Amino acid sequence: MYSKIINVPIVLEIGENIFIHMDEILQRNHIFFKEKILVTSPELKELYKQQIEQLSFDEIMLIQGGSYEEAREVMGNITNKDALLVAFGGGSVIDAVKMISNDLNLSYITAPSTLSNDAIYSPIARLVQNGKKQSFGVKAPLGIIADIEIIRRSPRKLLLAGVGDLVSNASAVKDWRLANAEKGEYINNFALTLATLSGNSVMSYTIDDIGTNRFIGDLANGLVISGLAMVLANSSRPASGGEHLVSHAIDDLYPTQTTLHGLQVAWGHLLLERDYRQDDDDFEKLRLFFDRMKITDELEHDLHFSSDEIARIIARAKTIRDRYTILSKF
To answer: Which positions ≥6 away from 119 have C-beta within 8 Å?
Structure first.
């Protein structure tokens, strides 16, 4: 008889002004540790000083995040091997905490200050190591506590990047199906279904909805479910296809011209639909959605590549990793 153990979040709380109730939420969900360590940025510590002081953290560690070297430095300051880490920040802080908890075999929860990508519940950490962004396989968090009021105060651009990252699941799923049809790659249908549903969950919104509880709740839930799809598949495959390879290629070739990961992925998604999949209906649907969400404005402002540079990006994307995508056919 075949069985598989799947780690799902013990707690998923999304609501207004719930950050200050973190102690109660953890207790209610029977999450007890000898020590709780908050890991956050100096800016967030100052901005949410009053809320943080109402919580029973034994220690607060400050980090900017995004750097492998910085994560290793913080790691050396953690001596309690029975501590719960609380990652309060954006994707850079959360990815750093993922790496720390994975290497020290500590449990952690995420408390996102924004929703710029699927870092809040993905088994992948993206960190800069030796000047280049690298992906590291890590364990998923015990849970997520997402305070809508805090997230609402984050820059609009970060939320739009989160939308771009989530919606790109449609591209990743197409590539997974293609790899299955042409190379016989195994598909976990449950993971594929979750990736598809989560990717579609924000497609009905416009930029006017971006500050609403419903939009933030759907974006947060969508990113969590997308992360769960990756956990189920034991791979980033459900949420990472050719569009992510394009983003990684931009990071690699043009590090001074990069923007937020989710926006780069959105740009890659649009490029693949237009020039490689040649599905006019899907391209037009995606283009109109990006227009409604003002993601198009962000892409036009941040990403400027000549035709020669795009050709170089595509060529590099094909060599990033051994993953069959639409780019493999060209």
So the answer is: 90, 91, 94, 95, 98, 110, 112, 125, 126
Q: Indicate the SS3 state at residue 259.
A: coil
Q: Is the pTM value of this prediction over 0.85?
A: yes
Residue identified by tokens 């990252």 is 165
3-state class of 72 per DSSP? helix
Query: In whole angstroms, what is the distance from residue 81 CA to residue 162 CA?
Result: 33
Distance CA 190, CA 232 (A): 8
What span, in angstroms and rounded, lies between the C-alpha atoms of 99 and 124?
9
Nearest to 296 by CA among 284, 311, 308, 307: 284
Amino acid at 43: E
Contact 89, 118 (CB under 8 A): no
What's the CA gap between 152 and 73, in Å, rounded? 31
Question: What integer pLDDT is reported at residue 5 of this predicted model?
Answer: 65
pLDDT in tens, 222-233: 999 999 999 999
